[in-house]
Amino acid sequence: MTREDDRIVAVALLTEAEAKGLGGMFRTVFRVDREPALFHDLLAAIDAAEARAADPRRR
Asked: How far, CA to CA in Å, does 30 sit from each of 15, 33, 57, 59?
């Protein structure tokens, strides 16, 4: 496996039932603690990544 194959290419926020319903479609699943501060940090990191990707100076 090359380093290119190890890149994160998608992030999904799913309920446990949704993840189970998709069966073996995901190789890796991480549970997210529902503690508000931790979940807020996760959403803030996703928002920051989106903002960086939308920045025309980064294209």
From this structure: 11, 10, 32, 30
Which pTM does this prediction carry?
A: 0.45
Nearest to 30, CA basis, from 3, 21, 39: 39
Angle in degrees, CA 25, 19, 54, rounded to 5:
80
Q: Give the domain range for residue 19.
A: 3-58
- Model confidence over 39-55: pLDDT tens digits? 788 888 888 888 888 88
- Helices (H), ranges, the chain: 16-21, 36-54
How many structural domains is the chain composed of?
Answer: 1
Q: Which residues contact 22 (CB under 8 A, 6 or more apart)?
A: 14
